[in-house]
Design brief:
The complex is a heterodimer of chains A (556) and B (400). Chain A is of the alpha+beta class and 556 residues long. In chain A, the strands form eight sheets. In chain A, strands 3, 4, 5, 6, 9, 19 and 20 form a seven-stranded mixed beta sheet that branches. In chain A, helix 11 (284-293) runs antiparallel to helix 17 (449-464). In chain A, 51% of the residues are buried. With 400 residues, chain B is mainly α. Chain B contains 13 helices and three strands. In chain B, strands 1-2-3 form a three-stranded antiparallel beta sheet. In chain B, helix 2 (45-66) runs antiparallel to helix 11 (295-328) and helix 7 (195-213) packs antiparallel against helix 12. Chain B is globular, with a radius of gyration of 21 Å. Residues 1-38 of chain B have low confidence and may be disordered. At the A-B interface, helix 1 and helix 2 of A face helix 7, helix 10, helix 11 and helix 12 of B.
Chain lengths: 556, 400
């Protein structure tokens, strides 16, 4: 009975082995399921969910006819997640991505994001995708494209690689067009197929008043003329004188916003708003209008015009350096007599003239939807001494931007109402709401209709029989004024540096278009506005007629 | 008080023929009834019901895991294939259930020899199939299978017969048949190479020797083997790396340790209740071989602790039922055979679980009944069939 008597032999059944193993497994299971290693937990939390950045998007910029001038297209970028990447796959990418990148990804990488290629073409993206490399991910990015190349590039501007506007409309309307990048929480597949956080397209749009047909004609003729006359710069501007809507804005030299590697900082300047120049004779109708309105001159006066007139400390010289005899007020404009204008100019009181020109918008930045514009140069009344008032009357000693000059001329053309320019017809933000609508805005009435009518007749005469005869065209009745301005250098006008321009409108009876064409410093011999600018304007008007942009009902 | 109130199945003394029947009584000290031979018949249905539930769980899991990717096949292609193999397995189980044990015993030597030949056949380039650096598959007459599965079926059958029949004693008996069978069986596996298979075969042979002849020599052998394996692991670099990965997967979380870490991540994702069937994230290529070697963590992720414990409970239940049969037998051959067949199911299971649960190195051994794979499924069901036949025979009270 007593255990001590019979020696006990304790043996171990091998089945205990299984019981122990089951026990260990259950214990470990509870541990792994309920009390996991913090390292495992952190891995679990980080590996599936990519905070995929949703690429920024940009709205479209359209012209008034609905053509896209700038839009964003989806492109593919590729990156590697080193966690899933095996460097032995790297040679497969040779030829598809730069060799330096292949070299880089042939080694063991750190982190979870190594960029391989950015914004590649769809063909190349497809080739890379068909390799189906593990750990290589595609990422959709938006790329800004300008379907019409360099057309309107100065107005449109351009963006940086991340889609933020850097100049032009892209900069001025950045807050409307730009949809900032966001984050989207995405599940990440270890084989790495879809990591696509891309918006389907932005609702944002900026619709311009620009007509790309007119824009194209202007740019084409501007380029021709600039090349032919070896100009330093050029600008051309077409607008509706009744509303102030800008129809075309061309600046030369051009640049291509899609190819920013070859960008030259001087060519980015939009000459129509970013460059002030002395307008010369194209300014005379405006000055004459002011003089008539303020009673400095009567329409039926006559002036004796010698070749040279001494005014205070300086001289006013006729363009062709010969006397013009006795000229009526109208003939002063038609024949563009500097001496005649100077005689009117000296009658003005500097302070009054300064104030009047200021109300016309000279010396002030234009209120156009292009961001910052050049102010021009309007001398303060204290500086209006000596020959200065006479100079201003012939468009020297005052610097304007082409846009300021053209907008001043709208008052002459439309019966006295000074209009604000506008370029954007409608702006829609990313949410689809209209945030801006451009419309006609008459700042003030600066001329009486009678004065305007008289000025328009004179300008018609100027084209029909005067200095602008080379712009006369059979397709419409064009009115205008030529301009040949000297360029000042260190306070002195220099021989051989001119700005040739032509400011015209048509149809004369019922003006619908106002065109300013400026060519800076032509150096191929010719420099008179009548010789350089007028023929180009003629071509532009004829091109526009050929494209049936304006109807033939005005043609006589 | 029976002083012999120790475990009834102190099986190491089976072969010594000491009067076991005399101790087959009520172990009052433990207050636990032990049935006499010929008592109420055993209920044998759990022997096949538990594996069937496991197999169905496996098919469900395979369907869930492969539905997302479907590489080049139909949506539930892998699951349908597994279904067909389950059908074949059930059929063969039934055949084995009907086959007299004498026939099995008679042809066990032939089966073992054939299994060895097939294992060696994997090394022949024409019929052996190389997958991921190892030749473990055999392609015969259009069928592709792992000879290791047949080997782990043949070794218990053959060795149980040899151990019982051998008149040698002590070390001589350990050398032959046990060690010689183990070495001969492991030889082709060594060249495949298949470390998991070698461990499996040796564990099987040694444990069967324990059951038949006692602990002494297998324990000595285990120490010797430990030394040998350490040497092998040290010599072959990739094994060494694998071993290191098992010890510290965080040393190379994107390399060697990736698989192990992702297995643990799957368990932790699952928590107690799991993320739901089909909703697991780990199958998105994070868990390599989620439907084969790593099916257990995949279950852990989708069904949580509840799911893994349920699966484990089925294995425990099945083991317990096999143990019941084992308890009933007095014949050393039968005891060794039951142990061997059960161990050839349970050892792979523990090797697989140990691998995915960071308890042992990864061996690439599938989880019985659950993992996708035809040859393993069929072989496991044949083992179930043999055990069911034994259960039936014991109920009849006529040990063959």
């Amino acid at each position: 009975m007593a255990p001590a008597i019979t020696p006990k032999r304790y043996t171990i059944s091998p089945w205990i082995f299984f019981a122990v193993l089951f026990g260990i497994v259950i214990w470990k299971l509870v541990e792994y399921h309920c009390f996991p290693d913090p390292l495992v937990l952190s891995r679990s939390r980080s590996q599936y969910w990519g905070r995929a950045s949703v690429g920024s998007s940009r709205g479209v910029i359209r012209d008034s006819l609905g053509n896209d001038l700038a839009h964003s297209v989806t492109t593919s970028s590729f990156f590697i997640d080193p966690m899933h990447w095996s460097p032995s796959d790297a040679p497969a990418l040779r030829g598809l991505v730069p060799d330096a990148v292949v070299e880089q990804i042939s080694h063991v990488l750190k982190g979870r994001y190594v960029r391989v290629a950015r914004k590649v073409s769809p063909d190349l993206a497809q080739k890379i995708l068909t390799l189906k490399l593990k750990g290589l991910y595609e990422e959709k990015e938006k790329k800004r494209e300008y379907p019409h190349g360099a057309l309107l590039s100065h107005v449109l501007g351009f963006c940086d690689a991340d889609g933020a506007g850097l100049s032009g409309l892209e900069l001025a309307w950045d807050s409307t067009l730009y949809e900032p990048p966001g984050y989207r929480i995405l599940s990440r597949h270890a084989r790495g197929r879809a990591l696509n956080g891309q918006r389907d397209g932005s609702l944002a749009a900026v619709t311009l008043t620009i007509d790309i047909r007119i824009q194209y004609i202007l740019e084409k003729r501007l380029n021709e003329a600039a090349v032919q006359h070896k100009a330093k710069w050029g600008a051309a501007l077409c607008l509706d004188p009744n509303t102030g809507a800008l129809l075309a804005m061309a600046s030369w030299p051009f640049f291509n916003p899609s190819n920013r590697d070859e960008l030259d900082s001087s060519s980015i300047v939009n000459n129509t708003v970013g460059r002030a120049y002395e307008p010369g004779s194209t300014f005379k109708p405006i000055f004459m209008g002011i003089a008539l309105e303020s009673g400095l001159v009567r329409a039926n006066e006559t002036f004796n015009c010698p070749a040279r007139l001494k005014v205070a400390d300086g001289f006013i010289t006729e363009a062709y350096k010969r006397a013009m005899g006795t000229l009526s007020t109208a003939e002063i404009l038609v024949k563009s007599s500097n001496v005649g204008m100077a005689q009117i100019g000296v009658r003005s009181t500097p302070l009054d003239m300064y104030r009047t020109l200021l109300t016309w918008g000279f010396g002030k930045a234009s209120d156009v939807e292009l961001g910052k514009t050049e102010k021009g140069l309007l001398a303060s009344p204290g500086q209006w001494r000596g020959v200065m008032p006479a100079n201003v009357s012939i468009g020297q000693g005052i610097a304007v931007t082409p846009l300021q000059l053209a907008m001043g001329m709208t008052a002459v053309v439309n019966g006295g109402k000074l209009l604000s320019p506008y370029l954007v017809r409608e702006a829609v933000d990313p949410a689809g709401e209209v945030v801006y609508r451009g419309s006609r805005h008459a700042a003030r009435e600066v001329l009486t209709p009678a004065t305007c009518r008289w000025l328009r007749t004179v300008m018609r005469e100027s084209v029909a029989v005067g200095t602008g005869w080379r712009a006369e065209t059979p397709v419409t009745r064009l009115a205008g004024k030529t301009g040949t301005a000297q360029v000042a250098e260190k306070g002195k006008y220099v021989e051989g540096r001119y700005v040739s321009s032509f400011l015209g409108f048509w149809p004369y009876e019922n003006p619908r278009y106002l065109l300013l064409f400026v060519l800076g410093e032509p150096s191929a011999g010719q420099y008179y506005g009548g010789e350089v600018a007028a023929p180009v304007v003629k071509k532009i008007v004829e091109d526009m007629a050929e494209l049936k942009i304006f109807g033939s009902e005005a043609i006589l | 008080m029976p002083s012999s109130g120790s475990w009834r199945a102190d099986s190491w003394r089976f072969g010594q023929g000491s009067g076991r029947a005399g101790r087959a009584g009520v172990t009052a000290a433990r207050g636990r009834r032990v049935r006499y031979k010929g008592a109420a018949p055993l209920k044998n249905w759990p022997l096949w019901v538990a594996p069937l539930v496991l197999s169905l769980c496996g098919i469900l899991m395979i369907a869930s895991l492969t539905s997302g990717s479907a590489p080049g096949g139909s949506l539930y292609g892998a699951a349908a294939k597994q279904c067909r193999f389950l059908g074949l397995g059930l059929l063969l189980m039934f055949c084995c259930y009907l086959t007299p044990l004498s026939v099995v015993r008679h042809y066990s030597g032939l089966l073992w020899f054939a299994a060895m030949l097939m294992a060696a056949g994997t090394l022949i380039p024409g019929i052996g199939v190389k997958v991921g650096g190892a030749r473990r598959w055999l392609n015969l007459l259009g069928f592709q299978f792992q000879p290791l599965e047949i080997l782990t079926l043949a070794v218990p059958l053959f060795l149980a017969d040899r151990l019982t029949a051998s008149k040698r004693q002590g070390f001589q008996c350990f050398c032959r048949p046990t060690l010689s069978v183990a070495f001969l069986s492991a030889l082709p596996l060594f060249f495949q190479p298949n470390m998991g298979g070698i461990i499996l075969v040796f564990a099987l042979c040694m444990s069967m020797h324990v059951v038949n002849r006692g602990w002494k020599y297998p324990l000595t052998g285990a120490a010797f083997l430990f030394f040998t394996f350490s040497l092998m692991i040290y010599v072959e670099r990739y094994r060494w790396e694998r071993f290191l990965a098992f010890l510290n997967p965080w040393a190379a979380p994107t390399g060697r340790g990736f698989q192990i870490i992702q297995g643990l991540v799957a368990f932790s994702n699952g928590g107690i209740f799991g993320v739901g069937v089909g909703k697991g994230l780990q199958k998105m290529d994070y868990l390599p071989a989620a439907h084969t070697d790593y099916i257990f963590p995949a279950i852990g992720e989708e069904f949580g602790l509840i799911g893994t414990l349920f699966v484990l409970a089925l294995y425990v239940f099945w083991t317990y039922k096999v143990y019941h049969i084992y308890q009933r037998v007095t014949d050393p051959y039968l005891a060794t055979l039951i142990w061997g067949v059960a161990a050839s199911v349970l050892f792979p299971m523990f090797l697989n679980l140990g691998g995915v649960m960071k308890l042992t190195p990864l061996t690439g051994i599938p989880l019985p009944f659950l993992s996708a794979g035809g040859s393993a499924m069929v072989a496991m069901w044949i083992k179930v069939g043999i055990l069911m036949h034994l259960g039936k025979e014991i109920n009849k009270g006529q040990a063959p």
